[in-house]
C-alpha cells in the first residue's frame, strides 16, 4: 500500500468559534455540510453520502476547538483527519484548519473536496 501524504489547509471563516464548533463536532452539524447524514454511537460516527457509508472513530476532541477522526478502514495506520478552529489572538480572525492525508496522486482531489465542503459550510453560516 502506498503511503499517504499529510496535507493541511486553512479557510478563513466569519463565524463565532462556538457556533462553528457545533457544525464540526455534532452529527447534526456535520450532516449539514460534510455528509448527507451522520450518525454517532459513542465514539463511532457513520458518515453517509448517497448510497455509500463510511465509519470513523472519534480519536479526540477539545471543546470549542477541534475534532479528530480516523476512518475505520485506516484503523491500523497513523492517518486521521482533523478539523480545528483557530482564532488569531490579535485580529480575532477565525479560520478552519484542516489536516488530512491522501495518496500523492489524490491530494489535489482531496483539497478540492475540502474546498467544496467548506464552501457549503460558509453558505450555511452566511459567511463570505
Automatic annotation (TrEMBL):
This is SRPBCC domain-containing protein. It holds the Pfam family START_2. Residues 1-126 form the START-like domain. It comes from the Bacteria. InterPro entries: START-like_dom_sf, START_2.
